[in-house]
């Protein structure tokens, strides 16, 4: 979910053609796979939504999945031809579950009003991965009632045939046993099996799809013994055989484990949408541009060929995760969480995305930057090491220092470089307020680009929200506190 200049005349035409190959149109237009993107907005300096929508259109993206129904973002989709999946976040599940009137009000404000304004709403996501084990069952008893109330509200508003309520779920809701790790042994998680059976049958009865988030990167991140090449699509790994099917990558194996789980739940032909799939580019030793490009090149070629999976051959509908990097996402799952974007914080493509040898992404137009200045460590400061650890941790508790972590893009900086990075990222996050480049005299402003090697010291963009980031200091993140101390 995440932030991130088109050429003119003939160049613009050629790029648009390449982008059309990169993000194929839906079956109604060409029969090719339907590839959309997740558009998250958890960043300190958002790009103007209309500019983002123009970028989507320039790249041939005709569908987006959102994580809320924020009017500022959704309004930009009006008249664009881009289909939208709106969302009621997890913190709204309780009210939606306990009071059907809340669901009716939600539909009236977020569906009816947006349809009237020209937004092409296709789905309403009820929560987001509510059954993650890390939530400790917080949403177990309210998700299904909320889903039923939302679909009923859509039906009552006259949209039930066109717009479906769904629940995007993490792939951890199903699994195969450790002693039989093949798709055919898969079933829904024991603690929620009966609930999942009820949900999938309700979705199927309403002709709604199962929306699943599949992350080959996480298989690698969570298991140090996981075979690296099984995460990709280029056939460089030993295949897995199961019930006459051959699996050469974890995505297909994971998807077909869900297919088997649905079969066992009594809905073998249920439609499946991949709600999130992608690869991060920073924050972990395996989160880098090289691997991300390898993953997307293989995945998009697979989508363009409409090969599907062994159990479900043919066209698929998927949403790449994510559009633009989001520097305010929680890092509790991992430092890579802020680096899933296909585009950087300022709307620039991170890498060449190749489909058939031609495709290239087009960036966001018209992004404006703050002045070309950086905040760096003042090496001449008296008693410079006295308050240094506290100052660096203070900066990294209020800004994004994840590129400094082990295996990340700025991991190779010197001692002083680490300090300068922390000071600068805080300075930029605070809209280059001069008070944000003090640290008791340990820092100074320079007009010399402070970037070093492959480590970018960014200059922040002008926030399209029009809100200047105030100098309000957040509680120190213990996750970053420990790691930053090791840097100095």
What would you note in describing this structure?
By secondary structure, the chain is α/β, with parallel strands linked by helices. The chain folds into two domains: 36-343, TIM Barrel (Alpha-Beta Barrel), CATH 3.20.20.80; 374-446, no CATH class. It is 31% helix and 12% strand. The protein has 13 helices and 15 strands. The strands form four sheets. Strands 5-4-3-2-1-13-12-9-6 form a nine-stranded parallel β-sheet. Helix 6 links the parallel strand 4 (120-126) and strand 5. Helix 5 crosses helix 6 (143-156), helix 11 (388-398) crosses helix 12 (415-429) and helix 11 (388-398) packs across helix 13 (478-485). It is globular and about 70 Å long.
> Might you state the CATH topology name of the largest domain?
TIM Barrel
Strand content: 5-15%
Largest sheet: 9 strands, parallel
> What's the total count of β strands?
15
Weakly predicted, low-confidence segments:
1-30, 468-486
Number of helices: 13
Q: What class do helices, strands and sheet pairing give?
A: alpha/beta
Please list the strands of the largest sheet in the order they lie side by side: 5-4-3-2-1-13-12-9-6
Report, as a whole number of angstroms, the end-to-end distance.
31 Å
């Amino acid at each position: 979910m995440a932030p991130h200049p088109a050429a003119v005349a003939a160049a613009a035409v050629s790029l648009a053609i390449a982008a059309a190959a990169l993000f194929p149109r839906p079956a109604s237009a060409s029969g090719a796979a339907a590839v959309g993107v997740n558009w998250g907005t958890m960043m300190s300096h958002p790009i103007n939504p209309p500019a983002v929508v123009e970028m989507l259109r320039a790249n041939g993206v005709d569908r987006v999945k959102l994580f809320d129904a924020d009017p500022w973002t959704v309004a930009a989709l009006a008249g664009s031809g881009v289909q939208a999946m709106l969302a009621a976040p997890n913190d709204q599940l309780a009210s939606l579950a306990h009071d059907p009137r809340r669901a009716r009000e939600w539909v009236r404000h977020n569906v009816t009003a947006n349809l009237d304004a020209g937004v092409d709403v296709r789905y309403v996501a009820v929560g987001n991965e509510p059954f993650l084990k890390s939530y400790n069952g917080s949403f177990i008893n309210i998700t299904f009632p909320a889903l039923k109330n939302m679909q009923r509200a859509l039906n009552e508003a006259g949209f039930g045939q066109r717009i479906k309520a769904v629940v995007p779920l993490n792939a951890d809701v199903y699994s195969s046993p450790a002693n039989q790790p093949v798709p055919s042994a898969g079933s829904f998680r024991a603690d929620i099996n009966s609930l999942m059976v009820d949900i999938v049958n309700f979705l199927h009865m309403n002709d709604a799809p199962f929306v699943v988030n599949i992350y080959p990167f996480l298989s690698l991140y969570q298991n140090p013994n996981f075979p690296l090449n099984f995460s990709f699509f280029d056939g460089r790994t030993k295949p897995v055989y199961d019930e006459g099917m051959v699996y050469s990558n974890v995505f297909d194996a994971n998807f077909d484990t869900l297919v088997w789980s649905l079969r066992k739940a009594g809905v073998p032909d249920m439609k499946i949408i991949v709600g999130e799939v992608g690869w991060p580019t920073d924050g972990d030793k395996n989160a880098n541009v090289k691997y991300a490009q390898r993953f997307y090149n293989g995945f998009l070629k697979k989508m363009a060929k409409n090969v599907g999976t062994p159990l479900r051959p043919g066209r698929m509908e998927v949403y790449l995760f994510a559009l633009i990097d989001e520097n305010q996402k929680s890092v509790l799952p991992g430092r890579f969480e802020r680096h899933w974007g296909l585009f950087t914080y300022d709307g620039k493509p991170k890498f060449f995305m190749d489909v058939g040898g031609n495709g290239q992404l087009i960036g966001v137009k018209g992004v404006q930057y703050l002045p070309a200045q950086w905040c760096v460590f003042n090496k001449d400061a008296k008693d410079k090491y006295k308050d240094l650890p506290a100052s660096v941790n203070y900066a990294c508790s209020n800004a994004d220092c994840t590129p400094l972590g082990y295996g990340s893009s700025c991991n190779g900086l010197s001692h002083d470089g680490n300090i300068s990075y922390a000071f600068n990222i805080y300075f930029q996050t605070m809209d280059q307020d001069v008070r944000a480049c003090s640290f008791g005299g340990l820092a100074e402003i320079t007009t010399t680009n402070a970037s070093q090697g492959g480590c970018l010291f960014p200059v922040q963009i002008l926030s399209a929200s029009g809100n200047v980031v105030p100098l309000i200091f957040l509680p120190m993140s213990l996750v970053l506190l420990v790691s930053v101390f090791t840097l100095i």
